[in-house]
Amino acid sequence: MESETLKIKNWLKGQELENGFYKSHKAALISSSNPFGLFGSYKNGQTEYHYLNGKIDSVEHEGQKMRFN
Q1: Nearest to 28 by CA among 66, 47, 4
Q2: Suppose 60 and one of 7, 32, 37, 48 were both cysteines; which one would form an S-S bond, judging by CB atoms 3.0 to 4.6 Å apart?
Q3: Spatial CA neighbour of 27 closest among 41, 6, 46
């Protein structure tokens, strides 16, 4: 039987677009969580959402970046 972790890893592979960007916030958030990785990003139009260690790290819109620490 396939483990839940392996199922999620396979699902994430199908969700990845390129350069660490994913098709959804959900996929980006999961990809930045242990044990799947540390980083994940999602882009919607001109807005980029960057996740680090399972939390939103920053949002970048039209060249302006807001960090959440």
Answers
A1: 47
A2: 48
A3: 41
Neighbours of 22 (CB within 10 A): 24
pLDDT bucket at 52, cuts 50 / 70 / 90: very high
The DSSP secondary-structure symbol of 14 reads H
2: CB partners within 8 A, 6+ apart: none
In this predicted structure, the answer to whether residue 35 has a pLDDT above a threshold of 90 is no
Could you tell me which residues are beta bridge partners of residue 43? 48
- C-alpha–C-alpha distance, residues 32 and 45, integer Å: 21
Give the helix/strand (H/E) hosting 61.
Answer: strand 55-61
